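Researcher: Next sequence.
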Amino acid sequence: MRSMFDDPEFSGRLFFPQRVETRCPPDAIDLRTSAKGATLHLRWHHAVPDAPTVLLFHGNGETVADYDLAAPAYARHGMNLAVVDYRGYGRSDGEPSLRAILEDAPAALAALREAATGSFFVMGRSLGSLCAAALYARNDPTVAGFIYESGITDLAALLRRCGFAAPPRFTAAERARFDPRGMLPKGTRPMLVLHATGDEVIPVEEARAAFALAGTADKTLTLIPDEGHNTISCDAAYWSALVRFVHARG
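Model: Next structure:
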C-alpha cells in the first residue's frame, strides 16, 4: 500500500542527492550490489585485517567519498569502515525514496558480509539512522551491535522539518515500515546511541527516545556536549564511546 512517504514531493524535500565521486583509496575496495531497480555502491576500507567493520549509512548531504578521509581515524582505533551510497547518491543509480532506502539496507549488509571478515556493526547517521532502525528490527545475529548517531526517532517531526503537516496519526502499515518508534522496540542487539546536545537539526530528545525504545538491555546513551549535528565526531568523547562499544562486542 502506498503512503505519503512514497509521494515524490516528500522525497524531493527529504533527499539531497550528491553525485560526488573519488578514486578508491589504498586499503579500500569498491563493491557493487543489486537492489530492486537499482545498483548500489559500497566502499570498504579494510586497513586493519580481521578487525571489526562498521557499516555506515551516511547523512543526507553526504556520500561515500566524504568518508575517505575519516576511514584512517577508524583504522587508528582498530576498526574498518564501510560506507554505502543511497540510490541517486555517489555511484549508486536509481532514485531515492524512503521506502527504497529502507528496503535496500539488507542488500548492502549482505554485500559487505560476502566481502569482509571479522565482526560487523551497523551505524546510521542522521538520515541513515532510519536504515539502521530497519535493520535493527530484523535481529540479524551476524550484526554484533548498532550505533544510532544523530538519529531520527520522531517521524512527525521529520515531516515538519520537510515542510509538511504531520497527520493526526500514522497507519499501522506506516508505523511498521517507516517509524523508528515501531522498529526499535523489536530489536534485541546491543545499541549505542550517540548525539550532540547542541544538535541544531535533530533535537537531543530524539536520542533519549531512541535509547528508551531500543528493545535490548545492552544499550548505552552517550551525549556529546557543546557540539552540533555536523561536529559531533570532533569530540574525543565520541570516539571513546564508539571504540569502547565496538571492541567490547567485536
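Model: Strands lie at 28-35, 38-45, 53-57, 80-84, 120-125, 143-149, 191-196, 219-224. The longest strand covers residues 28-35.
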